């Protein structure tokens, strides 16, 4: 079995790892770095439970080989709450009861984080489009969408206003 040495920044920490060629980013995060917030759902890129950000873009970590993130930055759900302080998006999920079983929540949070970074005040339709790759079997999406809307920066604030 071939191994590769990679260097990757995960949640702000630089990591140097020796990994097998076939290892996915999901496996690397969970097995090598003990970051179990990223969930293993379908292993086929259909459910979005494994979504993380690579250089700011949402990706399915189950479909991404770990060797592909060599030299890149990865943000997982654990990285949204450094030192235990929840992000505004995480707080909005709690406040809007957008969490039931919680299995989809990390992937939803990461997809929504990517959206809010590139578009701080999205419409409901833009939120739906950003979350299209994330499946939830419990909430029916309404509360999740409400939470993302609540966490969005108001247009006046984003433009340097009040």
Task: Provide tags for this entry.
162 residues; alpha+beta; five-stranded mixed β-sheet; 6 helices; 5 strands; 17% strand; globular
Helix content: 25-40%
User: In percent, how much strand structure appears in the residues?
Assistant: 15-25%
What count of helical segments does DSSP give? 6
What is the number of strand segments?
Answer: 5
Q: Regions with pLDDT < 50 over 5+ consecutive residues?
A: none
Major sheet size, sense and barrel closure:
5 strands, mixed
One letter per element, helices H and strands E, the order comes to EEHEEEHHHHH
* Average predicted confidence as pLDDT: 93
Tell me the span between the first and last alpha carbons.
58 Å
Q: Give the C-alpha Rg.
A: 16 Å
Question: How are the strands of the largest sheet arranged?
Answer: 2-1-5-3-4
Please tell me what the overall shape is.
Answer: globular
Q: Which structural class should the secondary elements be placed in? A: alpha+beta
Q: Summed up, what is this model?
A:
The chain is an alpha+beta fold and 162 residues long.
Word description of this protein:
- It is a single chain.
- This protein is an alpha+beta fold and 162 residues long.
- The protein is built from six helices and five strands.
- It has a five-stranded mixed sheet, sandwiched between helices.
- Helix 2 crosses helix 5.
- The termini are far apart.
- The mean pLDDT is 93.
SSE order and pairing:
Elements: E1 3-10, E2 13-20, H1 25-32, E3 51-54, E4 57-60, E5 73-75, H2 88-95, H3 105-118, H4 124-130, H5 142-151, H6 155-158
Parallel strand pairs: 1-5
Antiparallel strand pairs: 1-2, 3-4, 3-5
């Amino acid at each position: 079995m071939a191994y590769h040495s990679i260097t990757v920044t995960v949640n702000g920490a630089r990591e140097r790892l020796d990994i097998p060629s076939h290892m996915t980013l999901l496996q690397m995060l969970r097995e090598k770095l003990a970051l179990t917030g990223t969930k293993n759902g379908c292993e086929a890129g259909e459910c979005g439970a494994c979504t993380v950000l690579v250089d700011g873009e949402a990706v399915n970590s189950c479909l991404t080989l770990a060797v592909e993130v060599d030299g890149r930055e990865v943000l997982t759900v654990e990285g949204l709450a450094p030192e235990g302080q929840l992000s505004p998006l995480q707080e909005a999920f709690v406040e809007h009861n957008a969490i039931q079983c919680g299995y989809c929540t990390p992937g939803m949070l990461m997809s929504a984080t990517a959206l809010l970074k590139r578009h701080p005040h999205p419409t409901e339709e833009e939120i739906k489009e950003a979350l299209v790759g994330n499946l939830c079997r419990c909430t029916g999406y309404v509360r999740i969408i409400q939470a993302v809307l609540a966490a969005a920066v108001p247009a006046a604030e984003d433009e340097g206003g009040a």
